[in-house]
Amino acid sequence: MAPQSDDQPTLTGIDHFVLTVEDVEATCEFYAALGAEVKTFGDGRKAVHFGAQKINLHPVDNDVDHVAASPTPGAGDFCLLTETPVPTVIERLRDRGIDIVAGPVERTGAVGTLTSVYVRDPDDNLVEFARYGDDDAPAEG
């Protein structure tokens, strides 16, 4: 890690990020079924919360002042951490009729080795569910 100096900000983590979605309610339902808390904020905007982080949801026709240069549904690819053993995550995904794209597989996370399983949300964003130290995950198959 590079040493901090007075002319550099000290970055400490990720608070939130934004997904542009076709259907805010469908996206809220998808993530709520997986354990997220849906919250309304501002002028009726929606976010899904996971622990101390959140994903703000912008509809395609949003009127938010500051957005990405080319906001597009399905352009997201991100990892959500879980404390639930990966075999249980897989079982819960299958119980909800959610297709598994890949996994379980070993990946390198920010602070060590993850066991991950991948799915797609209603906008085709690639969502990785991962757990650190999940030695009981079965081999990919």
TrEMBL record:
SUPFAM superfamilies: Glyoxalase/Bleomycin resistance protein/Dihydroxybiphenyl dioxygenase. InterPro entries: Glyas_Bleomycin-R_OHBP_Dase (IPR029068), Glyas_Fos-R_dOase_dom (IPR004360), GlyoxalaseI/FosfomycinResist (IPR050383), VOC_core (IPR037523). Pfam families: Glyoxalase (PF00903). Residues 13-132 form the VOC domain. PANTHER family: GLYOXALASE DOMAIN-CONTAINING PROTEIN 5 (PTHR21366:SF14), GLYOXALASE FAMILY PROTEIN (PTHR21366). This is VOC family protein.
